[in-house]
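Many introductory courses stop at the sequence. We go one step further.
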Amino acid sequence: MPAPDCPVLSVVVAIVSDTAGQPDTNCLEPCLAALARQDHAPVIEIIVPYLPATAGIPRLRGKYPDVVFKEVSDLRMYTPGREGREHHDEIRARGLALARGEIVALIEDCGNPAADWSAKIIEHHRRPVAALGGAIENGVDRSLNWAVYFCDFLRYQNPLPEGESSIASDANASYKRPALEAIRPVWEEVFHESAVNSALRSRGETIALSPDVVLYQNRQGLSFMSALKERFVWGRSYAATRAGLADSVHRIFWAVFAPVLPVLMVARMTLMAREKRRTFGRFIKALPLTAALAVSWSCGEFTGYVTGRANAGGAQAAEAIARGSRATL
């Protein structure tokens, strides 16, 4: 079956499980299966932008002929064989540029939407909102998976406060296409969620959260060492991009205080998990792993602030974000 001519909902799936290794489709296949099983779904267009080295694409292309698989070989922020995550935001932008739906959703390959996910998106976008963020739950009951989940998405765990918000994670967010087109310069090179959401709000648009638009993080084959490595790379990338947007005084300040980040991060997560209550027992059980991941992130941040780069991608990401912000002024 070919891709639909007039999709109501476009879903851009970014392959982000390649930070510390070879890109593959181990997480992507369950994600596509979950999208194929949607109940009462609108007409959906699924777009998967992928790196040329991604293993398993030909098989999935045959299994899901209605999915638009788009090879992207000219990313500015990706160097084959090097660790990094800056290209994830760049590859999201490439997928987003291909979307034709009235509503455009962004998810990740390791995210499995609930059966009513797409129907709920359409329902909530009948309201006057430009962007809608959903809940993100952990889908693999292992201590390491819980630790990674708590570090990444605890703030989006249900109970999620419903209503207007300043945040929405690009791991489970949807946008009205006219609203995105109005700020196209902001995301045309890289889709950076905070820049996009800030630009929408500056135009008077509404961003909302909904607890019943649910997606499950489904990280497969996680090992402790790969999770530590990934956390370091992500922290370094975050710091390098942040440093590229700031002066040297701020970089020095952030670098000096990077060593205390693990304590602050774990304390904040503990308070949040206690407030949410649902999985506080699992949080306590996974706490040693969560703390180790927080230490690895802070080491990455320190490195990013000191060097001001993350495999040369951080500076490029900062420049692209700055150009997009200037274009909306």
